[in-house]
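anyone seen this seq b4? input:
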Amino acid sequence: MSRYPRLRDQADGVITAHIREREQRTKDQIMALVDFELAYMNTNHEDFIGFANAQQNSESSSKRKLGNQVIRKGYMAIQNLGFMKAGSRDYWFVLTSETLSWFKDDEEKDKKYMLPLDGLKIRDIEQGFMSRRHTFALFNPDQRNVYKDSKQLELSCETQEEVDSWKASFLRAGVYPEKKVDLTNGDDDQTASEGTSSLDPQLERQVETIRNLVDSYMKIITKTIRDLVPKIIMHLMINNSKDFINGELLACLYSTGDQNSMMEESPEEAAKREEMLRMYHACKEALRIIGDVSTATVSTPVPPPVKDDWLRTAPDSPRVSPPSPGGPPRRGVSSRVPPPPPSTRSAPSVPNRPPPGPPPRPGSGIGLPPPLIPQRPVPGIPPRIPDRPQIPARPN
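predicted toks r here
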């Protein structure tokens, strides 16, 4: 497509318009899927936790301990230290998820007391006439002693904000405020009691149950959305765009613009084509020149082979190097081949040849006589075997 920039721009415009159209349809389909989920809550879904399981989980979570985790530290005053210790005294308190401990100072070396929080409640105490501190108390609903011989442990702070902050910390530790119900004061007192009982443990368990139900169903919706949204995008955008490019893009290009103008080449492509043509003609001319040079060249005959008769010597004779051309012969070295050993057999006789006659006349029809067949020579008398040489006698 880089060779034809106008065709590329036209194709990009058509494909982009089609993708934008499919994108809008995909968004509409996803919004419809969200509306489907909001239309009805299917509590019969196999992955839904159900009310019974949600309530059981909330109870188990409320009973589950966080370990001895430190929730808050700070100074508070104990009001009911006893008659002999008039007034109050400040201590450094450390509140954990299981106990309330107080020390002499913030170095936490001298521990005065450690109070378990199991079964304790919080109540507000009215401010005294002569006291400016805000006080609340920890007590046991079963009327048991909380601290030594006292039924409650009275704690005070300088400001109401500090008291509220400590109450919230005790609430995190599982110490809930006292529930106040007064039916004699009418509707106003009933609304006030509802406001004070908002932190009731039973109400907390109900809220936790509803939270578990909502979380369970939201997990189902999240799982469904994560599964269907990629499928919707793949079907309505990607696969449809591929089918459009393979089937309808060519027809749209024919119908939207002039074919001749779209098929115009870019200047870079035209320059590249001209360069290729120039290289082609240059190579063709070079081949023609090489052919002319090959046909006009005269070749010289091959020199005769070098004689190697001097290499064919007897196996027992020493190897002699060839004489240098034009140089003097070497002394003491014979270039003749040694004669073969004498044979004991007599030489065969030469077959007889007919005397040469006059040549036949042309046209006489008389041909040459047939050639003589050579005969095997008659062997002579075999040679005499030499006698055994005499062994000389050993001298005395």
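The chain has eight helices and eight strands. The mean pLDDT is 75. kinda curious what u guys think
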